[in-house]
Amino acid sequence: MPRTDALNPEQVPAESKPTLDAFTRNIGFTPNMMATFAQSPIAFNAWATLLGSLSKALDLKTRDSIGLAVSEVNGCNYCLTVHSFTAEHMARLATDEIILARRGHATDPKRDAAVQFAHKVIETRGNVTDADFKAVRDAGYTDANIMEIVALVAMFSLTNFINNVFDPEKDFPAVAPAGSV
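Structure tokens predicted for Peroxidase-related enzyme:
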């Protein structure tokens, strides 16, 4: 049950309105998570800026796969519904690829290294081993790419935590637990 109400359009703080309106135009509706998050213009606009910057990092399939892996570890059911939807409809990942990403893997070897590394980062709170670091580097990722993977983990964790704390009503199709599919 939601712990706070999503804002109606007339309740959105003026400082959040341009960002929220842009998302609404791009997506076609206002997700409850964003209408909830918009209550804090500082946090919401900071996240939106980070999201915009990181949308240039890596490729869409890798970013969505990392979002799925992180959301699974963080137990964010709202984000799992969003990332499963975007992975299928925008990144064009097959259902088995979505489940694999939630488990911290991918069929593509390079993407698999990034997703495994992201999974290790979130599981260990960044205390990865030298072997973990070497594996992602050996897959062809530069230090800058590795920093982008870590930044994606942090960004996805932010929305996971916001959604786990405030529990907005889900407005994307439900997904089954990764272990049951």
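The chain has a mean pLDDT of 92.
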